[in-house]
Design a protein that fits this description.
With 259 residues, the chain is of the alpha/beta class. The chain has a single domain, classed as Alpha/Beta hydrolase fold, catalytic domain (Rossmann fold). The chain has ten helices and eight strands. It holds the Pfam family DLH.
């Protein structure tokens, strides 16, 4: 009963995307060997790409889904972005080494361990000291997948240090949070998504039109929530959507780094 009441309480708020659900727990594992490593940055464990340095002028921050930095797919994603962008990628562990367990759909436990205020504070503290740790940074991009999109959203405001953002199948974002965005935003959405629904996409577009910021919304037909990180790449349609969402994000970040 507590589980049901929790979700009812959340859904009563005006949302542009709903809370994570069972679709967020499905993983098709990719093949590969990560080339990055774990680094402690501002007391937070992070996965960093092999070209990591504190002297770069550009960085990409990835805010993960509920599986965090230990999921192979997330590590490989960071490596691929670093290869294509040519500058360091950092994936902070905003889950405090406590991701959703493999095969689990126990979101009641997950949200009890990761309340919004706790995660917001974690991300805020990490980003507040970012410019001190990386004094040469003049361009910071951010991308949020599912759970992580909400916490990136808070730093795409006028005073936020993130210069350009991207979401892939976002979850749990309230309209008030979405309406505060002042930076360019790319959204990659799945046609079949019980979290970022058609109604959510339409509402997001309506808000973005009013914000007068550069934005792009891509809708991929025939794929499901999670396709950009955890999709089954043996399926041609999913592979295409995953690769296209990735290449769009790379182009989005490159364009806004130069303009």
């Amino acid at each position: 009963m507590q589980y049901i009441v929790f979700f009812v309480r959340v859904i009563e708020k005006k949302m542009t995307s709903l809370p994570p659900s069972e679709c967020c727990a499905k993983v098709a594992y990719q093949q590969g060997t990560p080339s990055g490593h774990i680094e402690i940055i501002s007391t937070l464990k992070c996965y960093v790409s092999s070209n990591y340095t504190t002297n770069s002028d550009k960085y990409l921050l990835i805010f993960t889904d509920v599986f965090g930095i230990e999921l192979l797919n997330n590590k490989l994603l960071g490596d691929h972005f670093a290869q294509q962008l040519g500058y360091p990628v950092i994936i902070p562990d905003i889950l405090f080494d406590d991701p959703l367990s493999e095969g689990s759909t126990d979101f009641q436990r997950f949200f009890a361990n990761h309340p919004v205020d706790k995660t917001k504070k974690c991300v805020f503290n990490f980003l507040s000291s970012f410019k001190d740790t990386f004094p040469h940074a003049t361009f910071i991009a951010g991308i949020g997948y599912c759970f992580g999109a909400k916490y990136l959203c808070h730093h795409l405001t006028e005073s936020g240090i993130i210069d350009v953002g991207a979401f892939a199948h976002p979850s749990y974002i309230e309209e008030d949070e979405f309406s505060m965005i002042k930076k360019p935003l790319l959204i990659s959405a799945a046609e079949n998504d019980p979290v970022f629904t058609r109604e959510s996409r339409v509402k997001s577009e309506e808000i973005l039109k009013c914000l007068n910021i550069p934005y792009q919304i891509d809708l991929f037909g025939g794929v499901y929530h999670g396709f950009a990180v955890r999709g089954d790449l043996s399926k041609k349609q999913v592979k295409y959507a995953s690769e296209k969402a990735f290449s769009d994000a790379v182009y989005w970040f490159k364009y806004h780094a130069e303009n």
